[in-house]
Amino acid sequence: MIVDTRHIMFSPEAVREAVKTYRSLFPQKQPPGLVGPILIRSANPLVLGIKIQAVGARVFREIEMEESELAAMLILYCRHARIPLPRTAAKSIEAQGEHVVLVVSKAMPVEPAPN
Predict the structure, then answer these.
(1) How many H helices and E strands in the chain?
(2) Alpha helices in 10-102 (DSSP H)
(3) Is residue 93 part of a domain?
(4) Share of the chain above pLDDT 70, in %
(5) Chain-centroid distance, C-alpha 65
(6) What is the 3-class SS of 55-113, one letter each residue?
(7) Is 114 a member of any domain?
(8) Of the residues 22, 37, 87, 97, which has the fewest C-beta atoms closer than 10 A?
(9) 22 secondary structure, DSSP code
(10) Among 4, 5, 9, which residue's Cα sits nearest to residue 94?
(11) This protein's superkingdom (predicted)?
(12) How far apart are CA 65 and CA 52, in angstroms?
């Protein structure tokens, strides 16, 4: 068996763009408003803290994005950015410093060589 594993590293700016893309496609999933700072609140399980400033408000309020929602958001952003991801690959996310990493692994069986 051969396992192809890729690590797609999202900088804080790329995570921000992924959040904006997600919010524009699914406005009902998060409160409306201006996206402020995005911080990694927990590494295991991975949780993002996203500050949102409501229209007309002066202060930001923080919402949390759990690991499963974050993974779906990053996969959606990869599709939007035309980054190919195999549908049948295993996908997980992890934090590396201030970066969020999407880990994609696909196992491929090895065909026996003809005699």
Answers:
(1) 2, 6
(2) 12-25, 67-80
(3) yes
(4) 100
(5) 10
(6) CCCCCCEEEEECHHHHHHHHHHHHHHCCCCCCCCCEEEEEEECCEEEEEEEEEECCCCC
(7) no
(8) 87
(9) H
(10) 9
(11) Bacteria
(12) 12
100: β partners: 10, 95
Which residue type sits at 16? R
Residue-range definition of the domain harbouring residue 74 = 2-108
In DSSP terms, 43 is beta-bridged to 46
Tens-binned pLDDT, residue by residue, of the chain (115 aa): 899 999 999 999 999 899 888 888 888 877 788 888 888 988 888 899 989 888 888 888 898 988 988 999 999 999 999 999 999 999 999 999 999 999 999 998 888 877 7
Which residue from 115, 91, 95, 93 is spatially nearest to 105, judged by alpha carbons? Answer: 91
- Rounded to two decimals, the pTM is 0.81
How many domains, in total, are found in the chain? 1
Cα–Cα distance measured from residue 95 to residue 103, given in angstroms and rounded to the nearest whole number? 11
Q: Is residue 71 part of a domain?
A: yes
